Amino acid sequence: MKIIRFERDRSQFMASLKKNVNDYFKERGISTKGNWTMGVKSVVMLSLYIIPFILMITVSMPGWMIFPLSIIMGAGMAGTGMAVMHDAAHGSLSRKGWLNQLLSGSIFLMGTTIFNWKVQHNVLHHTFTNIDGMDEDIAGHAALRFSKHAPLKKIHRFQHLYWWFLYSFMTLSKLIGDFFQLKNYNKTGLTEQQNAKPALEYLKLFGTKAIYFPVVLGLPLLFSDFTWWQIALGFVVMHCTGGMIMAVVFQLAHVVEGAEQPLPDQGGNIENEWAIHQLQTTANFSRSNRWLHWYVGGLNFQIEHHLFPNVCHIHYRKISHIVEKTAMEFGLPYNMNPSIVNAIASHMRMLKALGREAA
């Protein structure tokens, strides 16, 4: 693993921002973690996944019904991942550690383990945001180019047209890709750096798959009236729905116009402080859309999330004004698209530019 170093907080931006945000919570006497509303949200999101599944295996219904039920399950899978599991994995959902650990396990709905997610997201993405070769979220694939420093291929010229199709396979690809990802973490020493044992994490991953497939595919085969091909197709529809939602929301924060992609110098040094780097590489969208904020778990406020990952997303809307004001006082950027439509349009323009321009 490369050694990347950020400058110290010479500008005192982060020190000032921390004080301003801490004062907000102290003056109101509220916790930075979630409250009872997170409990309600967790129940709602998990129900969107579990209730349609129970109906599939307990109620006799026509074959076509598996498709709307699978779409609802996909929406529930995405909602649980973004608004429940994500906060729990950061330890911000609750003040109770055991509850965070329990609900971070809801990533099982995607057929994977929490370890891979924490390394990819909490460690690599949050530390080295938008740095090519370090942040796996902009690593791209053969047909997608998210970084201006990645090799440019002819097929990338059309990626702004077919991106949505490939995004829908995000969680499906992880069902197998998990093993290759964990193999890489073991090889580079990332697993041991997280005080985890490579062999044990392999065992957990295999065990998760061994339970996931018999439950999600096996139970409908045994107890429902649906045919095997309807169940298989419903499984794909569920994952494509959830994968599309999550992939789009994540990309709208970092692969948009205004979000920079800096590289370290030959010595591995980034010219900015870590907090300023987060401002430069991250973007918010749809600040005023309360329903969207609720469903995506505050991921439309990614600037606040990156600067304060241990703060529950229910507070992001309020502290976003503090972050923006402090950034302006220090002459720093605060990237924000007014709506999700604007953010998607910016993402498409960015994909088009990345598909035609070399670094």
Summary, kept brief:
The chain is mainly α.
Number of strands: 4
Task: Assign an overall shape.
Answer: globular
What share of the residues does DSSP label as strand, in percent? under 5%
Give, in order, the helices and strands: EHHHHHHHHHHEHEHHHEH
Radius of gyration over all CA atoms, rounded? 21 Å
Which blocks of ≥5 consecutive residues have pLDDT under 50? none
Strand order of the largest sheet: 1-2
Number of separate helices:
15
End-to-end separation? 23 Å
Structural class: mainly alpha
Question: What is the domain tally?
Answer: 2
Largest sheet: 2 strands, parallel
User: What integer is the average pLDDT?
Assistant: 95
Helical coverage, percent range: 55-70%
Report on this model:
This protein has 359 residues and is mostly helical. It has two domains: 130 residues, no CATH class; 214 residues, no CATH class. Strands 1-2 form a two-stranded parallel sheet. A two-stranded parallel ribbon has the order 3-4.
Task: List strands and helices in order, with pairings.
Elements: E1 5-7, H1 13-28, H2 36-58, H3 66-89, H4 97-104, H5 114-127, H6 159-167, H7 170-188, H8 190-193, H9 198-223, H10 228-251, E2 269-273, H11 274-281, E3 284-285, H12 290-295, H13 302-307, H14 316-329, E4 336-337, H15 340-354
Parallel strand pairs: 1-2, 3-4
Helix pairs in contact: 1-14, 2-3, 2-9, 3-4, 3-10, 6-10, 6-15, 7-9, 9-10
Structure keywords:
60% helix; two-stranded parallel sheet; 4 strands; single chain; mainly alpha; two-stranded parallel ribbon
